[in-house]
Structures are given as C-alpha cells and as structure tokens.
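Need tokens for this chain, all 246 residues.
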Amino acid sequence: MTGIRSASSVILVRESTGFSRDLLQIYTIKRPDTMRFLPGFTAYPGGALEQGDESAEWDQYIGHDVQQDLLLSEMAPSAFPAPLTGGDLIRRKRAHLIAAMREVFEETGHLIGQAKQAGVAKYFEPSSLLHYRQALDRNEMTFYEVIKALNITLDDRQFIYAGRRLTPPISPIRFDTRFYVTYVPASVQLLPSVDEVAADAWIEPSRALELAERRMIQCAPPTVEIFRSLAQIDKQTQLIKHFTGG
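Here are the structure tokens for all 246 residues:
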C-alpha cells in the first residue's frame, strides 16, 4: 500500500436552470492534457491532501461532523490502507474536508464558510476573493492563513459524504479518495483556474452519463458511478431537500 496518497474530490451541485427532467446540475471540469494523473479526463474538482490540511491549528475553524449520503457503494475495508482509529481517524477525516474545501477554492474560486458567530452559511462571490486565491496560488499565503484573514469558519455542515474509492494497482499513480457533495447557489459565478481546468461545465447528470457511455468524454469509473446515481430522480430530490430545506 506504499505510495498511495490521500485525496478529496467534490461534486458541486445546483438546481437545474431551464427545462430538464433532471432536478439538478453538477459541475464538471476537464483536466488539462499536461496533468500527470488522468490527463484530459472529465472529473470533479479535487486533489491530494497537503501537509497543512492536517495541522492542529484548524481546530477553531472546522469540525468533522459530515452526514452520509452515499453515491458510491462502499468498498470492503480491507481494500484500503491500514485503518486509523480514535484521534488519528478524526484528524484524517477533518483533513479530507479541509482538502476538499481548499481544492474547490483553488480550482473554482468558490469558498463555503460562515462569518464567525453569525450562525448562518455565507456564500462569497468568487470574484470578491480573487486577491486571496492569487496569494494562495503564488504560495504567499496558506489556505489556513486565508481563512484566518477572512475570519470565517469553514462550514462542514454544507458537505455530505458520498463514498470512497482507491485507484487500482494497475495505475502508476494511486489515490485513496473520499468524495463529497456540496451545494452552490445558481447565482454564484465560478472562476475556474486556467492552470488546473482546461474546460468546465454545469451539466445534468443524465446528459453527463450519456456522454460518458457514448465515450464522448473520458471519465474514471467513480465519476461515471456518480453520474448514474445522480441521474435518479429520487436521489436528486433527496439532495435538494438536504441542502435547501425543501
């Protein structure tokens, strides 16, 4: 199991715009052809955990209580690296969440947080955070320093856990990836990173599944599994009610 990196991937969802039998849309990106892992593939925002994601300094800025609503069937525990327990498990779960939020911010400019002690979710316009994102890209600030400067609490309640997958042994690069789902209001305009996103789209799950099955887009198996799961009307209704309280 050596050489396997922990990673997080995030499915951004929003309510469908226009006329569609699907109740929601999902955000997909096309990975640049220069990427070492899955170049040119259609995927979700995400990436590997970084050292700072596991820092104890995050204690005051995030919890780790994420609800479970699986879109991927669970793999056997024996398929993964040796399981963590106790405090180590809590810290790793929190690190995955921080990585999820950081990667979404780096790749799309979207940040979910709440003003400290305000008690309600606050959605920032990505354009208003461009200064911080650029500082992060230039390694002038860490993600922790960005959150501290904004004086917000990362809102893990806006995430649900969607499953876990391990890159098969045949791959020269392997990841132990946790998937999450979060909601983006239709009014929020994402700003995809020119370095990490070759193309992006909001798309209905049934259409994404059709494109994948017809091989019009390249996707890893977990990506297609999530397309298929979200193409089910009952699953879409469940997700919308979870995030909007409808």
